[in-house]
Model the fold of this input.
Amino acid sequence: GVVRINITNMPYGVLLTQSVPPRRGVGITPIGRMPITSAVALNLSWGYPWSLSAPWMNNTVYEFVPMVTMSDDITDVTTMLPFYNSNYILYLNEPDLRGSGDYRSTMEEHARKFHSIYVAAKRVNPSAMFIVGNVASSTDWLTSFIQTYRSIYGVLPSVKGWGFHLYQNPYTSQLFREKLLSYRQWQLNTCLCPGKEMWLTEFGHLFDETVARQVMVDQVTSLHLDSLPWLTRYAWFATLSSPWKGSLMSSYSPALYTP
Done:
């Protein structure tokens, strides 16, 4: 639908009108580097940082989803959640990828941390909903998480959905879509918690801007991702930090890649 965006931190009180696809978002760092005008140009309806940092564009139009990692404690959660205008919470980032901060923890630690964070978040916001995993590539991690949680607590984890990332190198549109469908097949055939939301919380191409642009054309501009009824939301990788030459964001022009 058409939304009206009141830009209070811009001169002249600019008022913009725009149609925003409800599923389209961005994962972005560092906080505060993308002006709201760039979010408008990119047709974003939601976004997230890779942390519990306070949202940099908190308003009634764009939804900002916090991410909780193993480095956060209950005090961090209860302190920061009220700053966000979303009921969703992303839990962990690439716990299946060697070298990531969340990879260093055991599966039991992941499960127990989720339980304690879930209880704390529900006290702050009874409507809180968790999107778990945000895995680099392994649905095995998601299955193991479910099994481990159930073995400890005797019930399935109370998740709203599952998050995953998708990078293909070398990239072809066909390989990208096949990998995407493999996540869907896991949801249908293997997942012990069927009927949950599926979020693509990172995609793009990290090392080649030309390829990154092609990913956008093939998957976003073409509306392929929007056409998948089972894909609840998607967000492309956007960082201004070197050396990610294939990021879908530019320090010189934040709206460089516009679908």
Q: What stands out?
A: Helices lie at 36-41, 74-80, 107-124, 139-153, 173-189, 209-221. The CA atoms of residues 67 and 217 lie 28 Å apart. The chain has six helices and eleven strands. The first strand starts at residue 2 and ends at 6.
